[in-house]
Structures are given as structure tokens and as C-alpha cells.
Amino acid sequence: MPRKREHDAIEHLLLGKVTKMSELMDIPSKYLKNRHRVLWHDPISVGVLSFVAGGNPLENWIAGMTHLLLDNILNDYAKSKKGGKEKRQKVNKMI
After folding, report:
1. Under a CB-based contact definition with an 8 Å cutoff, are residues 62 and 46 in contact?
2. What is the pTM for the complete model shown?
């Protein structure tokens, strides 16, 4: 799964700044660890959190949807390849 660094890099590339969306979306990881994506990782939750996060809701929504896409892309890629950890590290180096 992408780390905060990867999420922040993509946000900065798209928006020119880093929002609080990734932090908010990943709060459940403190308690649920790898299963934290069952909470706040869907388009409806992203819409709600984009208003809760403060600042520009449109920028927050873009950051949240990017967070979802990055999580899903890297998760699917790691699962589809044998030796997923090494593959994920190669993808992280590309980012």
C-alpha cells in the first residue's frame, strides 16, 4: 500500500499543495491496521470528508479520489504479481 509520502507526492503534483485528506482517510489505520480501508475509502465518504477537512472542498475531493485510485492501483498490482512486496518497492521508486 502507498505510504503517506506517495500520497503527498501525487497531491502536490496535481494540486500544487498537500491537503489533509490522506491523513483523515487513514486515521482508522491506527486501530484496524491493514483492514483500515473498510472505512472512509469510498467515493461517498470522500465527498463527506472533503467538507470536513476544511479548505477548498473541490481540492480535498480531488486529493481523496486520488488517494483511492493510488491505493487501488498499487494494491491490485501487488496482488497480481508474485513477490508483491518487491514489485511495490519498484513502483514506489517510480513515484
Report:
1. no
2. 0.73
pLDDT tens-digit readout, 61-86: 999 999 888 888 776 666 666 555 66
Residue-number span of the structural domain to which 35 is assigned:
4-94
Residues 6+ apart with CB under 8 A from 87: 77, 78, 81
Number of domains comprising the chain? 1
Q: In sequence order, what DSSP letters do the residues of 41-63 get, joined into one string?
A: -SHHHHHHHHHHT-S-HHHHHHH
Question: What does each C-alpha distance from 81 to 11, 44, 88 come to in angstroms?
Answer: 26, 30, 10
Q: What does the alpha-carbon distance between residue 92 and residue 5 come to, in Å, rounded to a whole number?
A: 9
Q: Could you tell me the three cell numbers for 40?
A: 472512509
